[in-house]
């Protein structure tokens, strides 16, 4: 257990929790190089971490998934119910790690980074910038106290919608896996087709798509190259592939691209939004949800300029108001809404006539 006495100040205070002494050392050294961060302690397990949180009052916690005495998910669940703090998960990029990380995001973690390759001297440096950026962003997040909730799969006729030739495009990053789940849970089985780009590693995207498929009345899948886009289905960009929407005769189809990352991301929201603007045009409706950085903002502006209805998640309900905030500042957004109202707005903008229409939407710039 390492404790560093640091006075409170403008630098964000970080607590590292990991059972590996080497990983604790690596994370501490890398985060300590950021002038905006200071590591105030390093704990080998959740029991020690619990006491250090009380004494050191960190702004953000990095948390390992697999630890002795108490696993990271159990600790995270307790933390978010009793003393919510921004948490960045440190997890292995494997199928098992993907499921555990998605569980952590559902429990309230802000974001995740890959487990550093401790056997390779330069392993931590390969993603040091990403690690520091995610911890900085998480430190400014506003986690909510978690309460037990019952998830109800929506009925197929939830909004009484009948399909039209429309396409809904959604982009997100940090905090987006849960934001997307909330939107999809409020979609009926016969909703317009939805395409989604979420910043996610290749080993996570299939597990994420399968999890979303279990959470909504729509059929959700990881997009495949050449796959036809049809109503009632949602297509999620695979990790490390751009999702591009092309017209194929009278319909649209998914195309996957290995082009260079944009804004350091592949898949990139901007890439998908641009393709929607070019090939779907006014038949589209678009939303930008919680996320770090500016990816998607310029693509959303192109959609807005083409006459496409656009909406951004508001600041109060966003884990990180980077991407939606950038879109608002660029004038790319017609509406700014809390997360729980976005699905209804998208359906109405796509021509839906729901049985229970949502209240009048908040104009951009209000209610953030």
From TrEMBL:
Main location: cytoplasm
GO terms classed as biological process: chemotaxis
Keywords: Chemotaxis, Cytoplasm, Hydrolase, Phosphoprotein
Active-site residue numbers: 173, 199, 295
GO CC annotations on file: cytoplasm
Annotated coiled-coil segments of the chain: none
Assigned EC number: 3.1.1.61, 3.5.1.44
Residue ranges of domain CheB-type methylesterase in the record: 161-353
Domain of life: Bacteria
Free-text description of this protein's post-translational modifications in UniProt: Phosphorylated by CheA. Phosphorylation of the N-terminal regulatory domain activates the methylesterase activity.
Molecular function in Gene Ontology: phosphorelay response regulator activity; protein-glutamate methylesterase activity; protein-glutamine glutaminase activity
Described purpose of this protein according to its UniProt entry: Involved in chemotaxis. Part of a chemotaxis signal transduction system that modulates chemotaxis in response to various stimuli. Catalyzes the demethylation of specific methylglutamate residues introduced into the chemoreceptors (methyl-accepting chemotaxis proteins or MCP) by CheR. Also mediates the irreversible deamidation of specific glutamine residues to glutamic acid.
PANTHER family assigned to the protein according to its UniProt record, in alphabetical order: PROTEIN-GLUTAMATE METHYLESTERASE/PROTEIN-GLUTAMINE GLUTAMINASE, PROTEIN-GLUTAMATE METHYLESTERASE_PROTEIN-GLUTAMINE GLUTAMINASE
Similarity remark: Belongs to the CheB family.
UniProt name for this protein: Protein-glutamate methylesterase/protein-glutamine glutaminase
Source species of the chain: Tahibacter soli
